[in-house]
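Project outcomes to date are best conveyed with an example. Our students and postdoctoral researchers have been running inverse folding experiments weekly, and each run begins with a structure described purely in tokens. The record below, which covers 331 residues, was selected by the lab manager from last quarter's runs and is presented without edits.
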């Protein structure tokens, strides 16, 4: 069974309510149709039912719940709850009403906040900031989590490295240039996400252009410091570095470059030093190795709110719905 088929099975066995707020995008409606057909989640679509059926008549989404903020019987309550939640930031009733009725992502996040749904998948036609800003304002971070970060689950065909070709790449979608403390926290969150979604032991490599002191630079120092912090604060996980990519995943290279490391040559969680490296790395593997790339999946938010690449397909969205559902099972 493939990785994503296993995720779908787990989602199916304990179905969660997942919101799709981008009802104006055909890929999203097609994904809703597929997710309903595969029975992986109870789908909630935000929008006007007549408009959705008129624009996308070929998709049978009759089993989805379609909610229009303009006519929903709990909209007024959600507006008042948003005012209360953001009153310290000066939120007025009129501002909250405009957000709830016109910005489907704010509406979706309030539904999750109030317990009417379990997670949200958005970003097919909206930016990451449009997707995550409402989540951070309304749902906020998990207790004791330093920051929200984003990862990709990479499934590389015919690959002997990682967990039979499955890797977690982080941060590849959100945190631009994390300092050592943040980089260590990203490593810990990523280890937890790998354990949850892949159900295998995470082996975490902190990546660099240097392996165990082979190069000297401030960028290397940042990773070295992050490793020290991670080993002190998150010693329940196998975390080591700094490691070059080949030393991290190839056993033969690890023997010569990092013979004393318990991570080198075995890594399945790859922590990139900054967003540039992470984003370039995942796209190289996706395009050149023809890997499946699921994400960016967020970690650190108190409920699963996941972003999509704007180049995603309907199948990518279905996979993200399933992953979001499994994350919600662990909430």
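After processing, the design step wrote out the following sequence:
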């Amino acid at each position: 069974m493939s990785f994503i088929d296993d995720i779908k099975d787990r989602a199916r066995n304990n179905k969660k309510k997942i919101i799709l707020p981008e009802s104006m995008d055909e890929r999203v409606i097609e994904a809703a149709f597929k997710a309903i057909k595969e029975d992986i989640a109870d789908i909630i679509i935000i929008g006007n039912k007549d408009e959705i059926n008129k624009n996308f008549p070929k998709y049978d989404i009759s089993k989805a719940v379609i909610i229009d903020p303009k006519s929903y019987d709990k909209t007024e309550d959600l507006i008042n709850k948003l005012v209360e939640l953001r009153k310290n930031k000066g939120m007025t009733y009129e501002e909250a009403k405009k957000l709830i009725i016109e910005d489907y992502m704010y509406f979706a996040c309030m539904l999750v906040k109030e317990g009417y749904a379990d997670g949200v998948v958005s970003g097919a036609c909206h930016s990451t900031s449009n997707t995550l800003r409402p989540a951070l304002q309304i749902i906020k971070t998990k207790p004791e989590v330093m920051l929200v970060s984003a990862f990709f689950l990479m499934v590389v065909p015919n690959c002997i490295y990682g967990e039979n070709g499955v890797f977690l790449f982080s941060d590849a979608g959100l945190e631009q240039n994390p300092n050592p403390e943040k980089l260590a926290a990203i490593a810990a969150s990523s280890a937890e996400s790998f354990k949850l979604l892949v159900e295998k032991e995470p082996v975490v490599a902190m990546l660099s252009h240097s392996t165990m002191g082979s190069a000297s630079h401030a960028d290397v120092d940042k990773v070295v410091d992050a490793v020290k912090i991670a080993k002190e604060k998150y010693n329940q996980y196998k975390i080591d570095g700094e490691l070059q990519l080949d030393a991290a995943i190839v056993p033969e290279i690890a023997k010569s470059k990092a013979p004393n490391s318990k991570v080198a040559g075995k890594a399945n969680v790859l922590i990139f030093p900054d967003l540039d490296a992470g984003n370039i790395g995942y796209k190289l593997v996706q395009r050149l190795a023809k890997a499946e790339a699921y994400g960016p999946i967020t970690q650190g938010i108190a409920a699963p709110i996941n972003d999509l690449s704007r180049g995603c397909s309907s199948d990518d969205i279905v996979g993200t719905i399933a992953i979001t559902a499994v994350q919600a099972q662990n909430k």
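The CA atoms of residues 79 and 96 lie 6 Å apart. DSSP finds 13 helices and eleven strands in the chain. The training component of this project remains on track.
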